[in-house]
């Protein structure tokens, strides 16, 4: 049995959860509360870097979400979730890595604002908006007449980018200027896997509770689990 250690609020966790659902695999979900549970000895024995997600498969521990996705694709290749064509594969990988390295860090700049905390830095907010705009234009230009990035079928690219791009309205950025990307987002959010893994109000409330305490907020930042 596959076991996914995750936190519902985490896009990194969600991308693995969606992949497990899209591949129709049986798995167990174990929630790790980012209030210090990630530092307990039992979890550190699974991942010494105290991050989520972690996938455990018959005693084999896989850390880092992109590595987990590659593992699942290699071990469970049906349905295929990566393009075979060289150009399409490059598109898929570019979108994944730009999401992780550029879009998600820029989006987390808005986290205090989303949670209603004071002290947002206007200069950092403006820089983040510019970065996000650059990423969204890049994504818009990569989409062609196919419904997904480099593919007629859902891929791991959608799993990664599709757990971050739909957050843009929450940070005050409309996708209306990006019609292809907006239509792509609309196709994703109605899928059962996206609906099942959507963050609940209860999960958001729990996250707010942990985040308001300065020591716990520090734990969240160190954990890398957001």
From TrEMBL:
Chain ranges of the GST C-terminal domain: 85-207
Origin superkingdom: Bacteria
Name this protein carries in UniProt: Glutathione S-transferase family protein
UniProt keyword Transferase present: yes
UniProt keywords, alphabetically: Transferase
GO MF assignments: transferase activity
Keyword Transferase: yes
Domain GST N-terminal, residue spans: 1-80
Signal peptide stretch: none
Annotated InterPro entries: Glutathione-S-Trfase_C-like (IPR010987), Glutathione-S-Trfase_C_sf (IPR036282), Glutathione_S-Trfase (IPR040079), Glutathione_S-Trfase_N (IPR004045), GST_C (IPR004046), Thioredoxin-like_sf (IPR036249)
